[in-house]
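Example 3.
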Amino acid sequence: MFGWEFPPHILGGLGTASFGLTKGMAQCGDMDITFVIPKPWGDEPKDFARIIGANTTPVAWRDVNWDYVEGRIGKVLDAQTYFDLRDHIYGDFNYMNTNDLGCIEFSGRYPDNLLEEINNYSIVAGVIARTIDCDVIHSHDWLTYPAGIHAKQVTGKPLVIHVHATDFDRSRGKVNPTVFGIEKDGMNNADHIITVSDLTRKTVIEKYGISPDKVTTVHNAVEPLSQELLDLEVPPKHEKVVTFLGRITMQKGPEYFVDAAWQVLQKVRNVQFVMAGSGDMMEKMIRLAARRHIAGRFHFTGFLKGKQVYEMLKASDVYIMPSVSEPFGISPLEAMQMGVPSIISKQSGCAEILNNVIKVDYWDTNAIADAIYSIIKYPAMYKQLREQGLDEVSKITWDRAGAKVIDIYNRLINR
Amino acid sequence: MKSICFYFQIHQPFRLKTYRFFDIGNDHYYYDDFANDDIITRIAQRSYLPANEMLLDMIRSNGKKFKVAFSISGTALEQLEQYVPEFIDSMKELADTGCVEFLSETYAHSLSSLVDPEEFISQVKAHDEKIYQLFGQKPRVFRNTELIYDDDIAVMVASMGFKGAITDGAKHILGWKSPNYLYKSAAAPKLRLLLKNSKLSDDIAFRFSNPEWAAYPLTADKYIDWIASLPEEEMLVNLFMNYETFGELQPRESGIFDFMRALPRFAEQRGITFMTPSEVVSKMKPVSELSVMHPISWADEARDTSAWMGNILQEEAVNKLYCLAERIRLIEDRRIRQDWNYLQASDHFYYMSTKHSSDGSVHSHYSPYDSPYAAFTNYMNVLSDFMIRVREQFPEEIENEELNALLLTIRNQEKEIEELNREVEMMRNNIVKDTTGDFVPKVEEKVEGEVEKPAPAAKKVAVKKPAAKKAPAKKKASKK
């Protein structure tokens, strides 16, 4: 598998989903999974997949000894693997910017020279594909499609690409032609395409012109939360808290949240609105809240990570995700796990599988406001959504998603 | 000789408009007039009117041997009066044939039988009054909202003087027994029970035009054959269904009208007659007692009341609504009483059902809302406004008991003042007469007799406004 993120160092939902799926597939048994990411930190869970970092895979020969390798990268990669990989260098990449081990450096994030990093990643994939014997190649999201294609060309094994999002979701329609090109190329070369929702499947079929029989939806799931997270203590509060949690970007529809908040505050005063996360529209949202004269009741927390996310959820009475376009959207499921009633847009993929949430059109701020009001004012509403939501989300597990993916693998291998 | 007992249900709720929380306290009109008009007119055109015509035909051409019963909720009658008055006329014409019986039910098609006995009784009375006013019949057989029934309801119904009640032949109640007999209630042995034959009713109501059904196409002679071939001693077949079955659920093209028209002829050939529920009650003998501990209904597979009171949302909404009942009984404001009726319609709670099974899909089919949660939100917003209005009538800190006493005093005072005024008037007249001449005493005596005691034991409260006299829920002050 080729991926870009892996917990605990994640930047968005991609890492969580890749991890969950890998684990779910491992639970189904008889799987030997190698997961490639640009830059492992060494603290990734390794019990069900072997993790290889692109930044520790040599693409140019360096005459180094065992101890040196062990000392340099021992905590992220076992030295033997390094030497195996070194034996499969397939070209002279000394012209590239390589380090003392013959590896290319990766940021593992989404830097400005992302396209260059994607390209480097695909060069590295060539070495890995020659080294590791596999039956299926699985690429998560467009960043890794070129690597997947490269690996397919090297090994001749079937390529499955996993569409966690398309550029149509990210850009509200203003598609970046380069990204579109990479996505389209990946889809054309793939033997099968997995999408995270029917919504995304439709985009893939309609906007990328892919034959429907090549595209299957496997909805995402969630990991059960640890008891530690469920037991988190939060300071007692006297007011209701309504939370938006996610990147503050155009795709997530933050302005609709501000508008709905403004409406609710016309009628009820003891409510706090929280916009947790960061993004390019944050300042604009701060200004918007100020202009609406609700800044006193509207809070920005900045980017939250790890435990902070769950503390925030635990302290919330309503979770809201007014995404304009959300291929899946895993965070409402997490909110439900924490027992927080959720309002989600009909334009998000997770709306396809959730019943005990309130679904609204993202632009229908009246409906969003009504839903918020209802949950904070009518205890029965809160209770019903909370209890039924907990029950529902506990049945959405990764091993089911994993089993579906394995089915697809089997079909590809046996045909 | 076997008999078929047909009963058709007509009910339409007053659907609520989208009522936002901004409207709470500001907008006191709750109904989606456009949708209500649109729906009742459409259904009347496609179903009620042609079906009435069909029934009239059937009754006339079969020498009044064909008989049916109707149960029409008060809210449906109001809508029909308002939007499709020709239907009321056509119904009157049917009533005049003498072959149509009208059943009793709650005015608002409400769940009051499960929650508030006092409200239940007053609604039944209001409904029967309305039926009498329109069709000149006093209902003798009772049919509860969605055929909800249990022993407690049986006792209430019997105490109101009804001879019979209609409910569902739920399997878990009947066990091995057949619905094709007349039963009596275990709790109120005077009350006869007519049980719906689900199989034969649903054959017409739900399966008639389904080509995948093994018995498709259903013809009148085949159907009558089924009835005729029932065991000898099973004398009664109760076919209960929504009136929309004709023309709406089963479209005209399916041939449902022709099927019905052909029934009497084949029935006659096989010696099967038609009876109304009250004929059944008076002519047949009950075979055994039936005890129903937990409420049953005709809804869903479970035949229980969970479609209306099955989840937290529904319970909350019902409780919040009926919390107001006592206070409302003290209020005479006509609009409040009207809204109180309309808000009780069981449909509002049905929309909040979260059953996702195969049954649940039926729920969402009839709902004007996207989801049960939207239904709850909208209803509660309306109810919040309604509660404000109820509270505005009287200060909240006064207890109902106290308030009742105060109101009684006020009303009696009024009466007393009126009496005294009259007395004064007469005295004056007397004085005038006196000055002109002759006699006095006769008039004096009469006045003495007319003056009532200040606070009579009878708690009947005069209805003040002339408008309120027309209001359906004419009521009595509720002091026990």
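The two ends of chain B are 49 Å apart (CA to CA). Confidence is low (pLDDT under 50) at residues 443-453, 455-480 of chain B.
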